[in-house]
């Protein structure tokens, strides 16, 4: 089955969560179905869902018998244990011959290439967050045949990128959305030990928050709870943009609901292909509206949606559609406890390297302005990362700032960072800046902190060492090696989502030098959605100052505390932990396991506060035996200390009832 408009293929892609649902959906008015097998996919939370090996085999055959396509989700981040399962799974899939797998973790590429599997085409998952031309060219070189576009990509951008790259595009047209950039929500891991990037999200985005800013409290209800996508009335624009595959979200939805949605879209596409001149966009739209689970949005398809992106119906509270039960309730980050520190130390000892690491580990600091950079240099930091996402009211680092700092750096390194998400304008700006820099000894820069594979692909020819930032979610040694061998990465920060046992195993196996964030409040939600609009467009309901950060910064307030949200120079929002990460008590064990660079997330501290923190960690690095004593002398500047995802794993793994 295939549909075409002016020679362009149009594929309607439907979801299926179980084999019984698949058997119904495959005969609906769609061209392809995607589903998960028994492991390694992002819908493993719900008992009884996904297909067995035999069901996967039968499903692929059923699809092909009908002239349709079958895509299999292998879209989890993979830990070290998963790599062995993946080898077995890929051998099976190579025999079964699906039309493609949908993948997130870069480890899938060496796994497939190592065994020379010819029957496993790869589509990049939305969790790869492909959002610029260089990323498309990079994944094309890796063997990807289709990209699932970033949820924040508008149709005009998709049309331009598709035309320039020739790559097939898949685009979400209906169903559950997320306010956070793909693979850039780490909050569920920090609170529950359940990774959103491994299909176990506990939906903290659908809690009831209040917004505070400038001493005012605003009645926001659910400020992060996105509406459901609905592009039903915009099929002509989707086709014009060059989108090949119209993707319906819903692997957790029931049969009746899916058949209603799939057949509605299929019939509308057929009507448009049969007679585009008299096509009625609204015909059939009322059925979708009357059976909606949340209110509808076109999200970023036609530009930033603003507060209209946020749902106001009761499902915004984070309830499962099928059971009505709540995903989770407001929860504070766990406090750092002595018992857990001892368990972390014991686990890390298993990763102790036979060959000693560098005699003195280095302190690196991520800064937001020149004052912070100078303070960190004066206190002995070996590396300064100049952020690419500068929080307001500071302004982005420019050439004059960089040359001033590099002239003062002494033996330290100054590394230029980049925004996490880089559009075509960002790419042009950085490319011009670095090209001009060749005439001026790279402005004294010592490397680049890279946050997306498009930047790695484009800027590798400049021969500046590249360090892979934590948001790349490197979870296993195979993906780490792939970054090293394919992109030339010289050092990496592993995923912040790694629970204790997975971090230990990565440290045991990684050949790429490892740096770790050991202190600060890292960003756990990276949003195009502007929460600050709540304080501009709503009337306050009360007066209350922020507890830990300046009133000019917005915070999300629950009965468990408040999380600061920082707005960068481009308007993007960055939600931080309420508590500070602090790994001071086990720096010795991390160093023995091969971690030679300890990073401080310094962007949100006042300059003198940052100076004190860098000084303490510099003292610790020079004598790792005194870490416990130094920790006793430290007082948290925010709501307390936490170990983040290292709170979880082994004895303290949080047990959650499956819904």
From TrEMBL:
UniProt KW Cell division keyword: no
UniProt cross-references to InterPro entries, sorted A to Z: Peptidase_U32, RNA/ubiquinone_mod_enzymes, rSAM_sf
A Pfam family recorded for this sequence: Peptidase_U32
Keyword terms: Hydrolase, Protease
Origin: domain of life: Bacteria
Gene Ontology BP, a term: proteolysis
Annotated GO MF terms: peptidase activity
UniProt entry tagged with the keyword ATP-binding: no
PANTHER family: PEPTIDASE U32 FAMILY
Protein name (Swiss-Prot/TrEMBL): Putative protease
Species name: Paenibacillus aquistagni
